[in-house]
Amino acid sequence: MGTPERSALEAQLVDSLRALATASIVPAPLATGGLAALERLFDVQVASRHCDQAARWLRGQGKGYYTIGSSGHESNAAVAMGLRTSDPALLHYRSGGFYLARAGLGGVHDILAGMVAATAEPIAGGRHKVFGRHDLAVIPQTSTIASHLPRAVGVAFAIGRAARLRVESPWPTDALAVCSFGDASANHAVAAGAINTALHCAHQRLPLPLLFVCEDNGLGISVRTPAGWIESAYGNRPHLRYAGVDGTDPEAVLAVTAELGEWVRTQRRPAFLHLRTVRFGGHAGTDVEVAYRTPAELRADADRDPILATARRLVASGHHTADGLAARHDDLRARVYEVATTVAQWPQLATAEEVLAPLAPRTPQAVAIAAGATLTPDATGADTGEPLTLAQAINATLADLLHTHDNMLLFGEDVAAKGGVYGVTKGLLAQAGAARVFDTLLDETSILGLANGAAISGFLPIAEIQYLAYLHNAEDQLRGEASTLQFFSNGQYRNGMVVRIAGLGYQEGFGGHFHNDDSLTVLRDLPGVVVAVPARPDDAAAMLRTLVAAAQVDGTVSVIVEPIARYHTTDLIEPGDRLWLAAPTPGEHVPIGAARTYGDGTDITLLTFGNGVYMSLRAAYRLLARGIGARVVDMRWIAPLPIDDILREAEATGAVLVVDETRCSGGVAEGVLAALIDGGFGGRMARVTSKDSFIPLGDAAKLMLLSEPEIEAAVERLLAPR
Fold first, then answer.
1. 532-555 residue pLDDT tens
2. For residue 584, what is the DSSP state?
């Protein structure tokens, strides 16, 4: 493949390095140890720059797939040098210098292997280009904005909480978490929320050792960040120590980072490092920045090249010459392009099975063993044999799980002293203590970010989202962060967690679309995420144990949607029959993807879940009086669907009605009918759903939500002679 001619950016740097020989540089000695630090800094800065150039060269050869670089941001290497390699780091996509400072020049292989999607890349294994390495405590991030900041807050929180609870953690007890992001990303709601959460913790004197690093080049692709904006927004925030430093002063970056890092480490409080940088080469390889920047601006940035700044200081020290540093630059260039030529020949992922391998590992036998071990005799009232409501069964199971797992945390809005809006977590604070059961601030992004960070730091988090509609404020924390971690770390990092959500419709006397949200669409297509919807109290207890065991054993990310309308239901058919109550069986669990069948009717199969189980059982009771025998199948799992059970129960009657309380468009029934067709089912099929509408207030809600009469009418239509 050879090596390319110098780019304009590289030629400009080399000319500037050589020009130092005749520049007026005032001699200035270095402090003890300063020479070695600056030499190391120069090497990793130059290597990072060459990686960017090599990425564009590889792209031109049809061998590379990523050209967003770190050129101009290489002063972040000095930030890494001011911290410890055991401090967990969540890095911005322009933090290549930081990564190489931690990995050493051997990290060039890592970066370039990621750019060519090679399977030998050490963290993602060819699935994406990320900065990450497990042995260097660099947690991979695929975010192009600041969506990793809530996880960083969670990691910092977990460091302090693990020490308090004596929970085994992958991070040292005196570690700090560091996260880097751009000036444009600092304006994103997720960044503002994460920083606010950190300050909220600091205001309460909760340990939160977190260093925010804003790499400010003044641009978000082509949109300018107003001069002084970052300092104005973050320079005087209560409970946030702020320090600004110019990336063209390498010794200052080293010193400020070391001092600020030590303050965070000892004070266990958050700080904000404002690192002023430049950006070379546009946003990415396809971005032509001369379309929106003037030649004068580009020339001014060239004079602020952080590599040139480090070289100038080395020349001033008297230990290096300009020509020597230019030669050192070219030696590193040759080494980087040699690596680039090598990795371009490395194999990529070749089969779908290889790609999917780390996405969602399932070891059902191990999960069954772990789930059966979670119930501790006499720990709670879960094994008394008394029939319980859905809310009581969940409460008792959570109590038992907290008793069994010392590393479990339960948190969300109103879950502690109040015990939740519906009393589902009542009494758990008193049983487990405020360090493990606690209220969060009202921000779903922060709740899920805390779960992401805690899960990667030695905890088993159970996070509560108060209502299903509120999830939409923060769904990227599931979609972009939680669900992707095992996939993009090749299984080296896991964030097993359970997210509890009160949801679905049919609340009497309360509601509107925020409290009667009947949409599960946003959850159904998340690769690897398990979605459970229990209807009965015994199922809720058993499924919850399964999900906790799966988080522990397989690192599974799961969501359990609890039907609000069934929390306190006692009766099924007649008032006082108490047929909806059930006594959870000690040690019982429900395998992921296993359905439950009620009855043995031979005329029709009603496939349903959640509130649909309650309505279908009632409808089946009335249909039987009209000579129609229906069996009701509670799918229980929305993702993955219980395909084998669905097909078996469909074949048992030859006619299937999918009873789906979600909306017609994008509802669960679409996937169920597709599964029946894909499975070769040849019988009659139909669906009955709620309307394509938001849920209004009051009795009008009943006009939009699926009803029992509609179920019965749909059965009769399906079975009518043709």
1. 999 999 999 999 999 999 999 999
2. P
Q: Is the pLDDT of residue 376 over 60?
A: no
How many angstroms separate the Cα of 10 from the Cα of each of 15, 72, 333, 372? 9, 12, 10, 62
Q: What mean pLDDT is predicted for residues 577-588? A: 92
H or E segment and range at residue 395? helix 390-404
pLDDT value, residue 115? 95
Closest CA to 154 of 187, 201, 189: 201
Report how far residue 448's alpha carbon sits from residue 557's, in angstroms, rounded to the nearest whole number.
Answer: 11
Alpha-carbon torsion, ordered 210, 215, 219, 225, to 10 deg: 60
Write out 212-278 in H/E/C secondary structure: EEEEECCEECCEECCCCHHHHHHCCCCCCEEEEEECCCHHHHHHHHHHHHHHHHHHCCCEEEEEECC
Do 480 and 190 meet the contact criterion of CB atoms below 8 Å apart? no
Pairing between β-strand 596-598 and β-strand 630-634 as defined by DSSP bridges: antiparallel
Which residues, at least 6 apart from 357, have a Cβ–Cβ distance to it below 8 Å? 491
Q: Whose CA is closest to 312, among 37, 32, 42?
A: 42
What is residue 378's predicted lDDT score, i.e. its pLDDT? Answer: 45
Report whether pLDDT(464) > 70.
yes
Inter-axis angle of helices 34-60 and 306-317, to 10 degrees? 150
Neighbour-count burial for 431-465, b at 16+ CB within 10 Å, e otherwise: ebeeebbbebeebbbbbbbbbbbbbbbbbbbbbbb
Q: What is the per-residue pLDDT across 21-76, written as a single tens digit (0 to 9) for each?
A: 988 888 888 888 899 999 999 999 999 999 999 999 999 999 999 889 999 999 99
In three-state form (DSSP H/G/I as H, E/B as E, the rest C), the secondary structure along 496-529 is CEEEEEEECCCCCCCCCCCCCCCCCHHHHCCCCC
Tell whether the torsion through CA atoms of 141, 126, 4 and 338 is positive or negative. positive
At 71, the amino acid letter reads S
Cα distance between residue 504 and residue 560, in whole Å: 12
Is the Cβ–Cβ distance between 180 and 92 less than 8 Å?
yes
CA distance 450 to 477: 10
Residue 377 has pLDDT above 60, yes or no: no
pLDDT in the model for residue 510: 66
| CA–CA separation, 2 and 479 (whole Å) | 41
Q: How far apart are CA 636 and CA 595, in angstroms?
A: 6
Per-residue pLDDT for 95 more than 80? yes
Q: What percentage of the chain's residues is helix, strand, coil (to nearest 5)?
A: 45, 15, 45
Beta strand 637-639 pairing with 530-532? antiparallel
Grouping H, G, I as helix, E, B as strand and the rest as coil, residue 461 is strand
Which among 569, 408, 396 is positioned nearest to 498, based on CA atoms? 408
**pLDDT surpasses 80 at 231:** yes
Strand partners, 229: none
Averaged confidence pLDDT in the chain:
94
367: nearest Cα among 499, 537, 548: 548
Alpha carbon distance 116, 1 (integer Å)? 14
Token pair for 711: 């179920």
Tens digit of pLDDT for each residue in 270-299? 999 999 999 999 998 888 888 999 999 999
Instruction: Round to whole Å and give the CA distance between 308 and 505.
Output: 63
Handedness of CA 435, 441, 444, 448 (dihedral sign): negative
Q: How far apart are CA 397 and CA 392, in angstroms?
A: 8
The helices-and-strands tally (H runs, E runs) of the chain is 26, 20
Tokens of 44: 């990793």
Pairing of strands 271-276, 241-246: parallel
